[in-house]
TrEMBL record:
UniProt xrefs under SMART domains: HTH_XRE
Source species taxonomy: Bacteria, Bacillati, Actinomycetota, Actinomycetes, Kitasatosporales
Gene3D superfamilies (alphabetical): lambda repressor-like DNA-binding domains
CDD domains from the UniProt entry: HTH_XRE (cd00093)
Top-rank lineage group of the source organism: Bacteria
Any Pfam family hit: HTH_3
InterPro entries in alphabetical order: Cro/C1-type_HTH (IPR001387), Lambda_DNA-bd_dom_sf (IPR010982), MLTR_LBD (IPR041413)
Domain HTH cro/C1-type: 14-68
Protein name in UniProt: Helix-turn-helix domain-containing protein
Length: 270
């Protein structure tokens, strides 16, 4: 049965998300196990969807938990997912597990960041990245993206800044194409303003670009690191779902040896 309804914000949001995915009405109808006719009624505001249908459409569109809540609200329904404070008691097991992962990654750097790049936690090796950086970039709330690309941050030590920096910003832009976010777009514009203009050379790769970092100190030298990214794919809490664990690994034996020796030097005797 079709229920006539006044055009709602939901209709516009549904059209917007389908357009961002470059899907036809038929594509989405098949993915959500409904009919193109019914989907057309929803997008014109002629029908009001049930809560289950909104959830199904959101899942089919691959929306984040935050975006699913927003779509439910636009249809007049309560959010389905909680957004806990990261220091909430129910997340204590998660915090403990993450700390174990961070410490277990030593002597190599690893960080946990929010969706906008704010530092949530880091292991002791993270100090490798703050060496020589302006103090104001290292104060809370520390944003690791800004720290990495700001001229007074890591950028002055990154030997392949044009390539590596573009890799960082292009990864952000790719996420924005899937999940638009005004705050993230503002940060991206800031970060792109820090990068030198350059055209990728013939050896440039759009993925797995190593971080080539000049070592601080009189010995000089170069470190070469690659990055791995881990997310909580099965999280049902927004705060947890939006966390990213970024772990850095040595791309050569010289880097691995330096980081191992660095940890030994910084570990208190006894």
């Amino acid at each position: 049965m079709t229920t006539e309804a006044a055009p709602s914000r939901f209709a516009g949001e549904l059209r917007r998300w389908r357009g961002l995915r470059h899907w036809s009405q038929l594509d989405l109808a098949i993915a959500a196990d409904t009919t193109q006719r019914y989907l057309s009624f929803l997008e014109r505001g002629r029908s009001r969807p049930g809560r289950e249908m909104v959830v199904r459409l959101a899942e089919s569109l691959g929306l984040t938990l935050r975006e699913r809540n927003a779509l439910l609200l636009s249809a007049g329904y309560a959010p389905a997912f909680d957004e806990s404070s990261l220091d909430a008691p129910q997340l204590e097991p998660v915090r403990t597990a993450l700390r174990s992962v961070l410490d277990g990654h030593l002597p190599y750097p690893a960080v946990i960041v929010s969706r906008l790049g704010s530092l949530i936690d880091a292991n002791a090796a993270f100090g490798l990245f703050t060496e020589g950086c302006a103090p104001e970039l290292c104060r809370p709330p520390l944003n690791v993206r800004r720290l990495a690309l700001h001229p007074e941050g890591m950028a002055k030590r990154v030997l392949n800044l044009p390539e590596w920096g573009r890799h960082v910003t292009e990864a952000m832009r790719s996420r924005l194409r899937i999940s638009p976010d005004p705050q993230a777009e503002e940060l991206l514009a800031e970060l792109e303003g820090y990068l030198p203009r350059s055209e990728p050379g013939p050896g440039y790769l759009g993925f797995a670009v190593p971080l080539r970092l000049r070592r601080e100190g009189s010995s000089g030298g170069e470190l070469c690191l690659i990055t791995t990214l881990t997310t909580f794919a099965t999280a049902t809490d927004i705060s947890l779902a939006e966390l990213h664990l970024e772990a850095f690994l040595p791309a050569d034996e010289a880097t691995a040896t330096y980081l191992r020796d660095r940890q030994i030097r910084q570990t208190p005797a006894g």
